[in-house]
Amino acid sequence: MRADETDNDPVVAEIPVYLAKTLAEQLYVLQYPVRPHSHTYDDSTILKTNVRPRSGQIEMELGLRTRGPTYDRSKGEQIALNVDGAFRDKRDSEDNFYKSNVMDKLVLTSTKALSDVSRYAVGVVRDSSLHLTPIASVLALRPSFSYLDHADKRGRQERKDTSGEIEDSDDEEKAKKVTIRFEKPETEKSRKAKEKSYGFLLRQIREEPWIEVTYHKFGSERSEFDMRKMYCMYEDEHVDQFSLGSKEYLSQLVPPTEEVQATTPGLPAHLMSRSALISLPLHDRVKTVMINAGVASFVELLGVLGCGNNVESALSVLKVLQQVAVLVQGNWVVKSDLLYPKDSKSESGVPNELIQRGRDYVLYLFTKKTSVGRAEVADVVGLPGSDLKDILHGVSRSRGSRVTWEFLLPTDMAFLKKYPDVVQRQQMIWQSRSEQLSHIFKDKQNKQDDLNKAGPSVQRKARAVHIKSEPVDDVSDAQTKPLPAKQRRGNNDPR
């Protein structure tokens, strides 16, 4: 561009631009392509509004003015008669398509106007600043003529009733041959091709139920309240004045997907995109990170969650963290019931409830010391070697010949000093859990000792009888039945 051209096109004004995300997943742009701009639907009476959230469809019923000079009443009566039939007055009004004796409503249905709306946003100006909100979809609403289908269906039915075609059709149905076909097994390739077909997508849309919603007109109190959500809530967060090239500016305007990278052994090298993680609610965000990380320090978690040094955000994360993790040596470890959900079994066939107890016992030992011996754990928990190995690998690393295992991360003294109330609360939780585990394992050991004293003949009978373990619905259950004989022997049993 030449210098004289820039002089003829001076900058008139500079305004700040903000990105509002409160309505980013809920904002729809509605278009009325067959309606003149001078005749809007703003003054129309909205009788009913339905949506299909998954398919992104909208259906609106608008009341028609049946007493105006532009309404042909005789034609309206004829349409209502064709749709609802001559005996419409003898039925309940709710069963009729039209509530009165004339065509008294118009139905608008939507279709997607754009397949990709990632480049579009709705902007509002306030105090010489522009606020942009990304839109979820652009829909075009057109009049629906479904009432013609109703009229055609009713006409065929009335003709059958008067001419007796129903009996003939029944006889004809009886004479038809029935062919049974066996479908071939569906492969992954055929399944994906089927899911992309028009018929499959159309069937999915039709099977999704309509959800009735309340329509608030422009200018109403609720409409004005929701309009405020289109303004950015944090106007103080801004990018300083910069001079960037076109590529750098585009990168700042639409940041590329940034992957969550971990720098510690506890956190995975690849979790999910940061944009996908930030879009989750705080509880789901913390839970997702902890399940993937297993063990992490509080500082590392704040970095992955994008909280930085914000005190309020740190306290919110800490509150949620205590619901999905436990404190061990100043670091956070995901709870056992999240890794090993109820009503499932390990690969070796051991119920997950027993795995939970074994893992909690290992974590309790690590709250008392930095390393534990595999033998001392195996003697108490009585789990198969593969399950015990998985537990130890998740929270510790071996030292030497895999006999001694030390905790995965060093003790976080900074966290212990900064949050003494959280540390005290976690100590109380561990004390309660240790008493429950002690009672369970002691009861199991007593039964094993009694069995050993009874002699070989009783032991052989005990091995022949499988003693089922009762499921425990809560960690506070005081009584638990012993494990089967094979699981009681543990890894050190010479048999």
The neighbouring-strand order within the major sheet is 2-8-5-4-3-9
Biggest sheet features: 6 strands, mixed
- In angstroms, what separates the terminal alpha carbons? 88 Å
Strand content: 5-15%
Tell the overall outline.
extended
Count the helices. How many? Answer: 20
Q: Segments where pLDDT lies below 50 for 5+ residues?
A: 166-172, 257-271, 458-495
| Helix amount | 40-55%
What is the strand tally? 15
SS class: alpha+beta
In words, what does this structure look like?
The protein is of the alpha+beta class. It contains 20 helices and 15 strands. The strands form four sheets. It has a six-stranded mixed beta sheet, with no helix packed on it. Strand 11 (325-328) and strand 12 (331-334) form a beta hairpin. The radius of gyration is 34 Å and the shape is extended.
List keywords for this structure.
495 residues, alpha+beta, 15 strands, disordered C terminus
A few lines on this structure:
Helix content is 43%, strand content 15%. With 495 residues, the chain is of the alpha+beta class.
